[in-house]
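Annotated sample (chain length 205).
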Amino acid sequence: MSSWAAIIVEGAEGKLRAFVAGFLAGRQLPSTSVAFGCDLRLEHASLTERLRALLTGGHHLLLAPPELAPALREAIARGGPDVGLHAAGQHDISEAWFDIDATVYARDVAQTIRGVLAAVPHGARLEAYEEHEEVQPEYKAIELYTPVHDYRYRIHVRVIGAVGGVLAIRRELDRIEAVQLSPLHLRDGPLPTSASQEPGAPRKL
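Output written by the structure step:
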């Protein structure tokens, strides 16, 4: 599994976004090819001390895949100074993860969540998968007048693994209003060895 790169850039956020957009457009790549740390709610406590030290005022973090990171950093080094941007460092990121929590009262929303989690991208996996579904038809007739519901679905799960896969599934889940996503954690160095649980064998909440 190839590591993604965390590229630290000093400069104005607006100019950096415009620069990255032009870089990707010139290569006919989608805007999701590079991720901005400020859009991901990064958990800074998960970053190494060296990386945290680089993320001071006026510095921004870009996450780029290994096939794109060298060209992006070179482009910033060459053209960035003209618009006030300077590459301040780079760090390899081997893994990312975040937690999902949701309680929903509509079957179609529950099915949407399950569908996203059933299509985990290559390199990512699910851990600590817990879900619970309650169906109480006796409440169907009165749910318009009371806070009870005839259906409730709860889920907690961690998405962990290759950065690209984790970011892809995070984008899908972020579109579902009922889903709460924890800050994104990043890890450098060797991947940990831990047991994972496939979505086909969930635990009950």
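Annotation: The radius of gyration is 20 Å.
Annotation: The first helix runs from residue 13 to 26.
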